[in-house]
Amino acid sequence: MRTHFFAYLCYLSFSVWMGIAVANPPTLNDMLQQSKHNSKPADNGLQPLANGIPPASETATQPALNEEEDFLDPEKAFFLTVTTINHQTVRATWLVAEGYYLYAQKMHFVADNASIGNIALPPSKTKDDPLFGKVQVYEQTEVIITLTLENIRSHTLNLQVDYQGCATAGLCYPPMSKTLSLVLPAPTTPAETITPVSTPTAVTPALPNLSEQDQIAQALMQDNIFYTLLLFFGFGLLLSFTPCVFPMIPILSSIIVGQGKQLSTRSAFLLSLIYVLAMALTYTVAGVFAGMVGENLQAAFQEPIVLIVFALIFVALAFSMFGFYDLQMPNALQSKLTELSNHQQGGTWIGVAMMGFFSALIVGPCVAAPLAGILIYISQTGDAVFGGLALFSLSLGMGIPLLIIGTSAGQLLPRAGLWMDAIKNVFGVLLLATAWWLLERLLADFIVLMGWATLLIVSAVYMGALDSLQAGMSHWRRLWKGIGVIFLVYGVLLMIAASQGGQAVLYPLRLQNGSTSTATINSSGLSFQTVKGIEGLNQALAMAKQAGKPVMFDFYADWCVSCKEMEAFTFTDRNVQESLKDFVLLQADVTANDAQDKALYKQFGIFGPPAILFYGSDGIEKRAYRVVGFTPANTFFNHIERFKQTL
């Protein structure tokens, strides 16, 4: 299963990256259904079925009684999530592993501050069970039960869910009980009548149409440890080519360059390894914390004061690269660190580790589908150990390109002379770019564009873009000047774009009014209605329901790099805009990361932006169509069209 799953992800990502339009590509479900189930052993008080003998109809496919059989932990075999639909409707969803089933009559629900009214059950199947006789069971891979609450006495309540299931291989789990704390949204109108959510009527053994992050969470439940870690290592490799990791390249490269001519390949490798391991450990700890507590630790480091401080640090490091001064610690402290951490000229192992730590928290606060899937798994199962291992494997995959770049930088960089000074200047400019990249999420578009323009134009001047060509000038010097001219032209374009209301650094000719001298581009983007908190969202959803319109609900933050990508590359696409013309577009700006924002995260089980939810005209979210992380315009357009077919 892992091989198919990883192959599909590589195939899809390569197609998107290369801009290849593939007709009718295989779906993730197609590839998952081709794979076999690999389970992890667990000893959780499992009880054998009566006499340990499965039904006669199943004996041909079951192992012999003396053959060793591995069974899933009950939390993984029956993965339960509970979500609130509106102020009086709750949905319980089980993702049931292949080869397992739930007893219909063993499901019970009790709430402390409300009574349970109507219960909408999915169709069940009669099974001749050796323990209970003929019983009704759920063998489908997704079981959805919708509850209507009555006599509600508080908007917060504890819901106790009792259930029991078995494995067809011959073991029955003991009855299970989970108590979940829920926060009910406020009613939108006093007279609003809620119709229970309809549930699927067809039973199919195929994998249900789940969102990508839910499929990943389910994959974590079903497969063995080795393939899981290998899979998420592959996910990390793919994520390493995203803007979440790119800013770490000049940071690490600058550390390597700062060591000077005495740096060996072995030392460059060790410094790079320390940086990557520190980054990976930080991602792991922050991810486990988010999964267990339900709060994104990285979001707390996106406060303006934190970003400004670290931007100033990068500026200081950049000017050190330019040769304005040398950054040195006090001699006494330097001597102690030399003994403690094998101090080298220009930096320490401890300092490199700290830089990796802060890079993970501040530079790359991205939430992509693989990360969201792991966090969902941790939050629902409480398995921080296995989830943490998957996170660490994901982080190592993200760090491998950094490790290669850092090590090769130590090998390929010149040892001394003018070329070494030129290389230091290049990385000094890259550090300034990283500092501005951190600050741009706090600034207006005009200031952002002017800042990039200034950096490019000043760099071009130092590269000799305005100097005349001298006789006998070397080819390298001519190349250097040519690059400087490109920087100069692009910097001027950015200044013009800033003065004309431009927004995107990568598209300086895409102006606010949608026209230039060379092209006419509709760049107004999508017009979102901003909502704040659960109450604001519920009111907006109620209005959309009354109008009979579907809803797209977007989680956005100024400090979210992938959110900026969605704005610049996806929401500006004409096909996307046309496809969404009949939608009500809602957006929650969670930049402040305050109590209302955190409550909204918790309401939907989301750990950070970007995340996009889709609602039908009945006001009910279709969870299978959730989007987490940056999605290219063409892929997003196709996703919307598939969603519209369900309306």
Q: Please bin the fraction of helical residues.
A: 40-55%
The tally of beta strands, per DSSP, is 18
Walk across the major sheet and give the strand order. 1-12-11-4-8-7
- Largest sheet, strands/sense/barrel: 6 strands, antiparallel
Could you name the ranges where pLDDT drops below 50 across 5 or more consecutive residues? 1-69, 189-209, 340-347, 513-524
Mean pLDDT: 72
> Which band does the percent of strand residues land in?
5-15%
Structural class: alpha+beta
Number of helices: 21
InterPro entries: Cyt_c_assmbl_TM_dom, DsbD_gamma, DsbDN, DsbDN_sf, Thiol_diS_interchange_DbsD, Thioredoxin-like_sf, Thioredoxin_domain
Subcellular location: Cell inner membrane
Organism: Beggiatoa leptomitoformis
Disulfide bonds: 166-172, 244-366, 560-563
In short:
The protein has 647 residues and is α+β, with helices and mostly antiparallel strands.
Give a description of the structure.
The chain has five domains: 2-36; 52-61 and 68-202, Immunoglobulin-like; 227-438, no CATH class; 443-524, no CATH class; 529-644, Glutaredoxin, CATH 3.40.30.10. The protein is an alpha+beta fold and 647 residues long. A hairpin with a 3-residue loop joins strand 11 (165-167) and strand 12 (171-172). The strands form four sheets. The chain has a six-stranded antiparallel beta sheet with strand order 1-12-11-4-8-7, with no helix packed on it. It has a five-stranded mixed beta sheet with strand order 14-16-15-17-18, covered by helices on one side. The protein has 21 helices and 18 strands. Mean pLDDT is 72; it is low at 1-69, 189-209, 340-347 and 513-524.
